[in-house]
Amino acid sequence: MEEKIKKGYSMEERKEFRKLILEKLEKAKKDLFILKESFTNDQNNGTDDTSPTFKAFEEGSETLSKEQNAKILQHLQMFIKSLNTALIRVENKDYGICRITKKLIPKARLMAVPHTTLSIEGKKFVEKK
Predict the structure, then answer these.
(1) Cα(29)–Cα(127) distance, rounded to whole angstroms?
(2) Which H, E and C letters describe the chain, residue by residue?
C-alpha cells in the first residue's frame, strides 16, 4: 500500500504557523525599535573631566559596542524580512515546502524556525555545495 504524501499544511495548521510568525515578528520589531533607540541615544557618560587614558578606553569600548549593535541591527532587519516572506508563503499556501527537495518540512522544525525554507535534508544539500 502506497503512503500518501502530504502536499501542504491544512488551513488550521497554517493559522497556527501564522500566529507564531506574527508573535515572533512583533517581538523582533520591538527589539529593533529598542536597539535603534539605544543606537541613536547619544548620552554623554561624563568622561570629559577624567583622565585622557580612561577616555580613550571609553571611546574604544563605545566604538566596539556600536559595531556589535550594527551587526545585531542588520541581523534583526534580515530576520524581520524573513518572517514577512514566511507570512506571504502562509497566505499563498506554499508555506512549509522545502525549496530544494519540494517535500513538506516537518512541523517541529517550522515551530522552531518558522521562517525556514529548507528541510534538514535540503539544508544539508545546500551546505555541501
Answers:
(1) 30
(2) CCCCCCCCCCHHHHHHHHHHHHHHHHHHHHHHHHHHHHHHCCCCCCCCCCCHHHHHHHHHHHHHHHHHHHHHHHHHHHHHHHHHHHHHHHHCCCCCECCCCCCECCHHHHHHCCCCCCCHHHHHHHHHC
**Digits of tens for pLDDT over the chain (129 positions)?**
344 456 899 999 999 999 999 999 999 999 999 888 876 765 445 444 455 555 544 555 556 577 888 888 999 999 999 999 999 999 999 999 999 999 999 999 999 999 999 999 999 999 987
Cα(75)–Cα(26) distance, rounded to whole angstroms? 15
Instruction: Report which residue type is found at 75.
Output: H
